[in-house]
Amino acid sequence: VIVEVLAVGTELLLGHTVNTNAATIGTKLADAGVDLQYSSVIGDDHDRMVAAIRLALSRADAIVITGGLGPTQDDITREAISSATDRPLRFSDEYAARLKRWWESRGREMPESNLKQAEYPEGAVLLDNPKGTAPALQLETDGAVIFALPGVPAELEVLLDLYVVPVLAERAGEGVVVSRVIRTYGESESRIGELLSDLYVAKGNPSMAFLATAAEIKIRLTAHASTSDDAERLIAPLESAVKERLGRLVFGTDAETIEEIVFGLARERGWTLATAESATGGMVASRLTKVPGSSQVFRGAIVAYHEDIKLMNLGVPAGIIETHGVVSEPVAIAMADGAAAALGADVAISVTGSAGPDPQEQPVGTMVIAVHTPEQTMARTLTLPGDRERVRTYTTTGALHLARLAMSGEWWSGQPRRGRWV
Ligand code: ATP
Ligand code: MG
Description:
- The chain is an alpha/beta fold and 422 residues long.
- The protein is built from 14 helices and 17 strands.
- The strands form four sheets. It has a six-stranded mixed beta sheet with strand order 2-1-3-8-7-6, sandwiched between helices. The protein has a five-stranded mixed beta sheet with strand order 14-13-15-16-17, with helices on both faces.
- A hairpin with an 8-residue loop joins strand 6 (125-127) and strand 7 (136-140).
- The radius of gyration is 28 Å and the shape is elongated.
- The two termini are 45 Å apart.
- Residues 70, 72, 75 line the site of magnesium ion.
């Protein structure tokens, strides 16, 4: 089945509300092996909605509409479906009575306008909504099935699971879709694309896609098959080929995050962790403490923002700061060693840098990261583009990756190139 999603609401067009429902629907349908091919946003306008529904009817087997089922004047999804399919609106006395009881049970009188929620295009089935008052609708037309669901994300999610996914998964047949995400760090998206150019398949089975997020590049492999075992078999050779080609750039698979990997490495080795952060102000510690169970390995952090704290709490020798400046590899190394000693940790990650907007000693975007391990302490200088927040975020991710490399007994190889990671 070909599925089309229509998200309804002028607030979505204006950007006042982020269209998270489209992402929820996309994820759930993909997990169920259902082929979503179109997804669009329409304002609260009757004629445009009718046109969008008619277009969807012409090219899809199933339409999932979200939003516009409420009781106010701008909620017109029922009317639009009725016009687009030439089915008059009917009124469900039974549902109206149920709405009245719902209000009464809360000791309130129901506004007359709520009766609108008992209307439905002829032939539609009203689907009970366990999380709200507006029922969802399911309408079978000649060529397609239309689902209309409320816009409230929590209601939408429940109704998708209850009604939409089971119906569409069944109609889609036995097919399953399996995706594998290979996560890399250290090279640009374009460079990864070049490295994989001969393995790249846009439309094959399996297919390949690239996704870039905060310094990490993901490669998604997707396969369709009748069972998940068959899909896995299709993905396996391509997955190994990609991993072999990218080598140490690959740091994880699927949902594994870099902080989980660092946590896992520490636990495996029986090492404890700490951070000493200047420019990132605790962001590295914050990421590490996101991992459930991080108390098993995480000792603590010193946000050594002012030079005095670097001297007093981390024991950075004043002479090193005088000779090299605060934003320097010797200072980062002294910070990491100092944090390991002060906090009693086996591994300490330190950050010092010039995040901007005003340069501090070094040009904006010059960030120094050091990692202390029981074996050695190493530092790396990065030159990062972008504004203060971007520099801080990328540095945080970078610090976690350098910790991963140091803890695995690796470090960058070859010529250290500024702004490159491994
Ligand atoms: P209600 O009965 O609550 O009025 P409804 O079907 O009329 O439901 P809307 O009025 O369109 O839904 O939206 C209700 C709430 O859900 C609003 O807070 C809106 O911002 C949010 N919402 C609507 N559509 C989306 C969407 N596509 N993604 C995320 N949130 C959404
Ligand atoms: Mg509404």
